[in-house]
Fold these 3 entries.
Entry 1:
Amino acid sequence: MIPAIEISNLNKSIGKKDILKDISLTIYRGEIVGLIGHNGAGKSTLINILTGIKKPTQGSFVIYDNTGTMNKETQKVIGVMPDVDNLYQDMTVRFFLSYMSEIKGAKLSLQNIRELLEQVGLEAKLSNTRIKALSFGMKKKLCLAQALVGEPQLLILDEPTSGLDVHSVLHIKNLLLKLRGEGKTILLSSHNMEEVEKSCDRVAILKSGELTDIGTIEALIYKRQGVRKLIIRSSPVVTSDFLNQFALNIQIISQESNSIVIQVSDDEDISLLLKTLIEHSYKVYEVRSSDLQLKDIILGE
């Protein structure tokens, strides 16, 4: 795997306050990484350093082989989603996107602008509308459209779906997955844990300026829980006697009228159980996780 971002021993202090503490993190090309943590954890500071808004106190980073400075070469490969409050309210949508494309050294035709708007879920006819006349959700989508100007290889997105309706959230999620399929790299900061769980390949957790964990959601959950828990709804209900009869290495934690919660240490145990149930004419209606969720990990941080 080829790195898109390599962060090495990054520190940021303001006066005597340490904002970021010895952050080392590698993000690979073609993956979506979620950057999560409580308010004040250091997410925005890290993004501001990567995008050249702030400078680190110590440490270094490399973005697509460009070392730690927001030069013209870096600008060509990176797309950053700005905060809604930083938009130029009196500009029209078309002028704003054209203006941002000039800054990035790209050229947008009117057709390009219309395609960009449609890509993020905005109507092309909005191109002549002043930004101040847009709803909050429309402005969020415009910010994403701006990040896509010039077809950058790396997208850094800060809360891309906050304030959007369910349909728009789904549209953006599908767009991000499509971009990843095209080989784009995405660093996504979000408080929406469901969005992170459904979109991200790996998750980086910040707490009080420190990187406390990095990995897939499944790996992070297993690390804290140690085992997997599943709810199985079947007819008849699986019993301990049944498991013992076939020497299945599975423990029943609890049982209800039509379901059980089991504990397994290996995915092969799940496969073997389901195979055995079907062979013995059990009707399996549902198998779902009873594991911790990402929000449980954050709350426990």
Entry 2:
Amino acid sequence: MHAKSKKGYSILLSLHRHIHHGARAALAAATLLCAVAQPAAAAPYGPYASTPGEASLADALDSAPPSGDRAAMLASIDALPDATARADALGQLTPRTYALLPRLAIQSMDAADREIRHYLVERRSIAIDAPADVPVRGEGTIHMMLSGGLKQARYDAGFDRPEARSDSRSLRFAIDVSPVKNLIVGATLGIDGIDARLDPAQRPRITAFNSQIGPYASYHNGRFYIDATASYNFAEYKLRRQVGWDGFSDRLTAAADGDGWAASGEAGAMLRAGAVRVQPFAGLQYRHADVEGMREGGGAAALEVAGYRTRLMRATLGARASTNVDVGSWTLRPTVEAQWQRELRSRPDSRIEARFVAGDLPIFSLRPERLDRDAGLVSASVTATRSSRMAVRVGYSGEFSGDRRVHAATLSLSRRF
């Protein structure tokens, strides 16, 4: 090869090598810049979980790299100062807010059932105390009842279960007939609106509207009685919650429907101790409430939640006592009642499964800590009757357990036609 040609070739080869090494250096610098600009999610998140529900969510987050808006949300968790703050953030991302929805429906079913059974107690008392000329068949045996009630309830927080405080207002109508002596057969229709506030720091809010319909029956022979009630409950839920910590905030909304069924049976004796009537009793109650699946609207924290349910089977033991006081043409009947209630199922609440609306993370789940199995129920009322045809009742009832307190006041008016 000519000397000039060799020299030119050497210059070209050297230039090529410099260009190649420069390109590699530029590529490495660009890669490093991207890594700094988009930090990977810290982790794993599992060590920060403090409940089984948070652990399930952490496993889902650790199983796939962050993407889109979720990357910014996770980066804000990584920036939190300590493990406690990160665990709280994980808890807010779980579906724990929804854990008490079926319980609110059951609370409404319980209120309706107790109101009807209190009404049946008064119907029996009026029938026993009625003069002999009061008809028991045909004309004059139809009774109607209209009642309204207010209720406040508080549920303490537990593992994967939020604190909740609720107020409710209810209206109920019942009509029954006595086809034969001492037998009552009727039907009831009612509505109940609930407004619940959960986890005060986050300020989520649930509104639930319950509609109920069902039959009831009662029979006594002067010494023993038996009552039976049943109902179907349709619930409409709306929920608003805010997820937030330093560096992240998201407002979320959801709506869902639910079905429920309730059945109760109670049997007891009718005893007298002088002027006081005493009724010891035992009962069995079944409650079923399910919530359909729902999809939240919002940002990166929005969840899609599958349907879930609560099933209860309770046994009750109790007693009530009443007496009559005549005041002119009216008879006043004060009544007190106390009962112990035991949940027979060890796992009444089903698992709740969810996933983020955005992204492709796997499903995560939680099983809320169950409420206490034992509860004490008390009630007190005064009924004023006139000529065995009309009765006005004012009453209070309370439910007390280790993790919940429920207080209710009712006013009812009943009349025989």
Entry 3:
Amino acid sequence: MVTHGSSYELMRNLKLLNEPSINLQRDDHLQLIRQNLRKYIKEAYEKNQHAYNLRTRPRAIDIGETVFRRNFSQSNLEKSFNAKLSPVFIKAKVKEKLGNLYYVLEDEDGKHSGTYHSKDIRS
């Protein structure tokens, strides 16, 4: 009975193990290693993809919908304006959709306020 991994080395030296031995060419051996690597890389990719996408939700904002856009104001000493005291989000309306994640927004009074990524928009 083998109780420790180091016993295998001793048993191999005494030729007590009947292990099948296959002499592979270098190219064949490397091909087997590459196949295993592909399998492990694919498994790791799928595991990481699942963990990354676990808490993401697809966003669908319709044209004409009222949303809140992030306010990117900066402080100004001359005007005595402190940005940290300004509102973080400002009410806006979706004017058009650009691609999957970008939206053209306008303020409540109809003034063009710019293009915003969906991460900077709250419904």
